[in-house]
Specification:
The complex is a heterodimer of chains A (484) and B (493).
Chain A lengths: L3 E4 L2 E14 L38 H13 L7 E2 L2 E4 L9 E4 L9 E6 L5 E13 L3 E3 L8 E3 L6 E7 L6 H18 L11 E10 L9 E6 L2 H20 L7 E6 L4 E7 L9 E2 L6 E2 L2 H9 L5 H12 L3 H8 L2 H11 L4 H19 L10 H12 L5 H14 L3 H8 L7 H14 L1 H8 L5 H12 L6 H12 L2
Parallel strand pairs in A: 12-13
Antiparallel strand pairs in A: 1-2, 2-10, 2-11, 3-16, 4-5, 4-15, 6-7, 7-10, 8-9, 11-12, 13-14
Chain B lengths: L1 H4 L3 H10 L4 H14 L6 E4 L1 H16 L10 E5 L26 H8 L3 E6 L38 H8 L5 E6 L5 H7 L2 E4 L19 E6 L2 H11 L17 H4 L8 E5 L9 H16 L3 E5 L7 H16 L17 H12 L2 H14 L5 H21 L5 E5 L15 H5 L6 H6 L3 E8 L5 E8 L4 H15 L8 H4 L1
Parallel strand pairs in B: 2-3, 2-4, 7-8, 7-9
Antiparallel strand pairs in B: 1-3, 4-6, 5-6, 5-10, 9-11, 10-11
Chain lengths: 484, 493
């Protein structure tokens, strides 16, 4: 895979690290009992704690802690039995207390690993530096009134996991693969719904460039990118921008940038000199967070099969290619669908149909397996008809299209349309004889050595049989007849 | 009705129980006393209607046989406690018009026990001060004067309004909060009893925060028995405060029955500070003699890091305050000075809303937490804090309680120290170490200065051992047998 960028002075390597903010799946906020549901009317899910009212105190939500531990275990990471909540101080209208409660020096989760699934079934490890718990801020609405901004505090205080990667990625594709894999792990674990368009997963992207083998360059951080596609576009743009600056004799300033998806470019937000001094210090309203061994153990025992284990098992148990497995495991529902289809059937054929025809059809209509118009049982029914030679693979594709539109069973469609495969040798021989008789000239050419015409005869026979003739039988019988 | 207002809490409870008088009668007498004492400026908000309504409800409950531990007793509440639907100001302009839609846990506990609210008392702005002079609502006047001298004195701070209300017989008892001495120092200056409990004993929920790791609520009363009764009601675990400790609350008053005989009392030599007046030293000596006479053993101890407590306190407390006070931004409640830009609105609102002392501490706190200074100041101060706690822990291996003076001087004149913050801060030199270590500390009236002003002794105890602290206080109270009270000169005016 080409991992290097070409510049006027030669080749450049990108160095990418990601900080992902993943909203913890929980009914209540990190330090208050207010609800966290998405899309509620503004300021309807705000407790006095969230609103930073005088005298209000934070109380940790046990569920959020368990979700963080669960995520840490899912990332094969070290769980820190003692972690500390700090205050990150800054003023903004949607930060009611004037500080965000976060974890700075002692996060709840330490080093871990994510395995990226790259094209062709290749894999690559990316280090996780840490995961910490923190509060989300509210939302400032600047488009509601010409002279003032409005504030919606529904999101204020919602639990986020900030998951920080090592600067281990070298291409935009790897960054995309990282986000897809992380999202998939979070969804398997049930600790974050991973819906980037709803903002429940957002990424800050750190990008720098260097000559291969050189020390790291100065990085820029692109804040709050909310789709995998934009992350990749932002990286491509930013790396090129940095290369151009350096090759023009300039230097990169460490700064925070924004990605403008409409213009497809990154823009400076604030330089390092303007960076906030957050004045972190341990939050005196909260004691150090102590996670007992027993809790870690019970969460570890309740972990589901995770994507990497599932991939290995699919390859092992079903004998499907690694690449198919890595496509299937990205979403648990897809893998479940496949397993439902493959159960008691030819697993390779099942994998082909699920990852091929079905996923293509779903992609075209923007659906997912969870709302597939063809259920696993019905797709299985179609595959059964192929396996017992009731229909050919080609006819199966037509049946599949009809199933998509009508939702009917494959068997019913085959009966209704009379698509049952012709395996009666006499009937096929009859068709062959008719075709040969109608194409005496071509037959002569074939017999005088033009072998290529074999395909023509096959096509004619299939056409005459309405596609129903068993292709293997056609081949066999045709060869015999052509030989004279 | 001076007879009613002279009643101690325990005497009032007995009278109410015997049916000698009703809570409405008792409360009305105090409401009148509050109105007659406006010259002392002890209250920011008087709530006479609510008081009489609560008193009537209390009388109804008593008739029905439901009697709480403080049933029918009229109290003054420091205006740092959020009280539902009642203006809560922290004596700051920035909380203009703020009526909390919730009640602090401590006051809720008091109302549940049947107590009655007379009003909200004045304090140093956000509890930052030692003379009550930083209040946006003006200074509070100490009911005590030097005999033959009409000069107004400060009641101490920050719980100056509460101390004055109790000393001037405006309320039977009052709530205070203590971050560096804010209960004990005003108690000493007004001849009242003030108890700062162990950190974690009382919930901080609903108390406007100053320095979260130091703040504690406590009772301010005229006797040790009263403090014991009120302490029991105020204390208790609260799942709304993560630093609240889930430990049983004893019957402190019952525990007072035990004498101090056999108790080992430590005398820390480091508390004999430079320039401490001889009469303070003499009072301390007298305290030791009283305790010895009561059967206690008095021992010299050393708390070697004492001298670092005050400077470390003036790093930790402002650091936490600078962050705690960030929420007063004009966005959601209180004062707002409008401006075209958000940052300007913040700046103008906070400049107008905070007084000089609060601004000074926010600046100090912001500075010590800043990048490049954090380790040199905040981290170092936290290490000192640990050393101070270790000093006490070690001392408590050989003693049961510690005796010191509460303050280095008696009450001073209004305006005498306002321009000298360091001299003002030195008021707390003997009380601050207790907060830094999170221990219980009590100030008990022990005598009068040669000028006729009240002086207090401080008793420091082991964590959650308020019982022993109160027992030692009781022994001093008994031995001192003070009968003096301030003349009600403010009524004549």
């Amino acid at each position: 895979m080409a991992t290097l960028l070409h510049g006027a002075t030669g080749e450049w390597e990108m160095v990418i690290g990601l900080e992902v903010h993943a909203q913890v799946t929980s009914k209540a906020k990190l330090f208050s009992g207010a609800a966290t549901e998405f899309g509620a009317e503004p300021n309807t899910q705000v407790s006095f704690v969230d609103a930073g009212m005088p005298g209000m105190l934070p109380v940790i939500n046990r569920v959020c802690v368990e979700q963080a531990v669960r995520t840490g275990l899912g990332l094969k990471a070290q769980i820190n039995k003692v972690s500390v909540f700090d205050r990150k101080n800054y003023f903004y209208a949607d930060l009611p207390a004037g500080y965000q409660i976060s974890q700075y020096l002692q996060p709840i989760v330490g080093k871990g690993t994510i395995i990226l699934d790259l094209a062709g079934g290749e894999t690559r490890e990316v280090g996780i530096t840490r995961l910490h718990l923190e509060q989300d801020a509210g939302k400032s609405l600047h488009d509601q009134d010409p002279s003032s901004s409005f504030v919606d505090l529904n999101r204020a205080g919602v639990a986020l996991m900030e998951i920080v990667s090592e600067p281990d990625m070298r291409t935009a594709e790897e960054a995309g693969a990282y986000l897809r894999k992380l999202r998939s792990i979070l969804r398997y674990l049930g600790t974050c719904d991973g819906n980037m368009e709803q903002g429940s997963m957002r990424a800050d992207v750190n990008v720098s460039v260097r000559k291969p083998g050189a020390p790291f360059g100065t990085r820029c951080e692109i804040k709050n990118v909310n789709s995998i596609r934009y992350v990749q576009q932002a990286i491509e743009y930013e790396a090129r921008r940095q290369i151009d600056i350096i090759e023009d004799g300039g230097t990169i300033k460490q700064e925070t940038r924004l990605y403008d998806a409409r213009k497809g470019e990154t823009r400076s937000m604030r330089s390092k000199e303007d960076a906030h001094d957050y004045r972190y210090f341990p939050d005196p309203d909260l004691l150090p967070l102590v996670v007992q061994d027993g809790l870690i153990k019970s969460i570890a025992e309740s972990l589901p099969e995770l994507p990497d284990e599932k991939k290995a098992r699919l390859v092992r148990d079903y004998g499907i290619p690694l690449y198919d497995a890595s496509v299937l495991i990205l979403e648990k529902e897809r893998a479940d669908f496949f397993e439902a289809v493959a159960k008691g059937r030819d697993s390779k054929l099942s994998a082909n149909w699920v990852t091929g025809e079905l996923f293509a059809a779903l992609n075209k209509t923007g659906r997912d397996v969870t709302d597939s118009p063809i259920s696993a049982a019905k797709l299985g029914g179609l595959i059964d008809l192929i396996s017992d030679n009731t229909i050919s693979g080609r006819i199966a594709k037509d049946v599949f299209e009809i199933m998509l539109e009508t939702g009917k069973d494959a068997g019913a469609i085959v009966e209704e349309k009379g698509l049952r495969q012709v395996t009666d040798t006499g009937a096929i021989e009859g068709v062959i004889d008719a075709v040969l008789a109608a194409n005496a000239d071509k037959l002569a050419e074939y017999r005088s050595g033009k072998d290529k015409l074999f395909g023509f005869f096959v096509g004619q026979v299939m056409k005459q049989s309405g596609g129903k003739a068993n292709p293997a039988l056609v081949n066999e019988l045709l060869k015999k007849k052509l030989a004279g | 009705m001076s007879a009613f207002t002279d009643l101690t809490l325990t005497a009032a409870l007995e009278g109410l129980a015997k049916g000698d008088f009703t809570s409405v009668e008792l409360t009305r007498a105090h409401v009148e006393a509050v109105e007659a004492a406006r010259g002392l400026n002890a209250f920011v908000t008087e709530t006479p209607d609510q008081a009489l309504k609560m008193a009537a409800e209390s009388d109804t409950r008593r008739k029905a046989g439901t009697v709480g531990l403080m049933e029918g007793v009229p109290l003054a509440i420091k205006d740092l406690f959020c009280t539902k639907g009642v203006l809560t100001t922290a004596s700051s302009h920035i909380l203009d018009g703020f009526k909390p839609p919730y009640e602090s846990t401590v006051t809720a506990n008091l109302w549940k026990a049947g107590a009655v609210m007379l009003g909200k008392t004045n304090l140093d702005e956000f509890a930052m001060g030692s003379s009550n002079e930083t209040s946006y609502y003006g200074g509070v006047v100490n009911p005590w004067r030097k005999p033959g001298d009409n000069k107004n004195l400060v009641p101490g701070g920050s719980s100056g309004g509460s101390a004055t209300a109790v000393a001037a017989r405006l309320a039977i008892a009052a709530t205070g909060t203590d971050t560096g001495g804010s209960i004990r120092q005003p108690a000493a200056f007004t001849g009242t009893v003030g108890l700062k409990p162990t950190y974690g004993r009382c919930s901080r929920f609903g108390i406007v925060a100053f320095a979260s790791s130091l703040d504690q609520a406590g009772p301010m009363t005229r006797t040790i028995d009263d403090a014991a009764v009120m302490m029991r009601v105020m204390a208790g675990f609260d799942d709304k405060d993560s630093t609240s400790v889930d430990i049983a609350v004893p019957d402190y008053r019952a525990d007072l029955a035990q004498s101090v005989k056999g108790l080992r009392i430590g005398i820390p030599k480091e508390y004999r500070v430079d320039g401490m007046p001889a009469e303070i030293d003499a009072l301390w000596q007298q305290g030791m003699e009283w305790l010895k006479a009561a059967g206690a053993e008095v021992k010299d101890i050393s708390l070697p890091h004492t001298q670092y407590a005050l400077p470390a306190y003036y790093i930790v407390a402002p650091a936490e305050a600078s962050s705690n006070l960030a929420r007063y931004d004009g966005v959601r409640f209180g004062l707002r000075v409008p401006a075209d830009e958000l940052a300007d609105m913040y700046a103008q609102t906070r400049a107008a809303g905070f007084g000089a002392e609060v601004r000074r501490r926010i600046l100090i706190g912001t500075y010590v937490l800043s990048a490049g200074y954090y380790d040199a100041y905040y981290v170092k101060a936290q290490k000192i804090r640990t050393l101070i706690l270790n000093d006490f822990t070690k001392a408590f291996e050989s003693v049961d309680a510690i005796l010191t003076p509460t303050t280095p001087t008696a009450a001073f004149g209004l305006g005498d120290k306002v321009d000298d913050p360091v001299s003002m801060y030195l008021n707390d030199v003997l009380t601050v170490p207790v907060n830094m270590a999170g221990l219980p500390g009590l100030s008990v009236p022990a005598g009068l200065s040669k000028e006729g002003l009240p002086l207090g002794l401080q008793v420091i105890g082991k964590p959650f051992d308020e019982s022993t602290v109160l027992r030692v206080g009781k022994a001093i109270e008994d031995a001192a047998a003070l009968k003096q009270k301030p003349e009600a000169w403010w009524r004549a005016a």
